[in-house]
Amino acid sequence: MSEHPAIKTISFIGLGLIGTSLLRAFRLSQPVAGKPLFMKGYDPSFNETDKKDILDCGLDLFTTDKKTLYDADLIVLSAPVEANIALLAEIREYAGSSVLVTDVSSTKALIAEKARELGIPFIGMHPMAGREQQGFRAAHEELLREKTVILCDNASHLEEPKGKELVELLESAGCRTMLMDPENHDRIVANISHLPQMLSTLLINYCEENITASGPGFATLARLSGSSWSIWHDIVLTNSGNIALELEQFAGELLTLASDVKNENVENLASRFSKANRLYQTLKKLHNT
Q: Ranges for the Prephenate/arogenate dehydrogenase domain (predicted)?
């Protein structure tokens, strides 16, 4: 960051797995020289023990005072999607006009539209990372290292000082950044994130009677079925059209595959396996596995 940074204070609204992992990553990625970032936050689910323990994760202040909370250069919304959208009204009321707002929601079109309506400078942010465990005690700065963070900016805020420093903080933490518009983001994640979740959930329910005889391959495919509906509730409701379309198109692929198997069309099946093998090698290189 520059000698006179534009981002000096950051507020986190929601201190779960991703929000706290981002907090820890920002704490470690800032330069050694110069005044450190002041980071404060709030989470409505925290008890008194949580409020003390979160300070060990790099938070400087846990506060329930809205004026104090929203008095920041950068506000990171890391609550569920619909809660993040609702919080924009509070930001409009309590935060200064120069604040930059970002979020870690899994969908972007609706929150970007709401921020635009309220005249709030906003850059959507989606860290493509996660784990089965939830909550700030499962958070770790390494959760985001070498992971892609998609940035959605329709108003050129990334070209402004705070936008540039946000990218610098992310890249200093080892993240890869990628830019796309909110609507395209929601279409893409419906394909590579939301569809796999739905299929994993469907698979384990479909195979319920036989899972005691399953092996590690089945467990790998069913891993996402452990995800909490409390998180996916908002994702589905804010991206239902794209998710439904992906499911419908995938259902067509399943019917075609079933036909190839039934008719013993080994040429088509071999072609599918060959293409999948090539794509899997690409995927392994992308994720360094």
A: 8-289
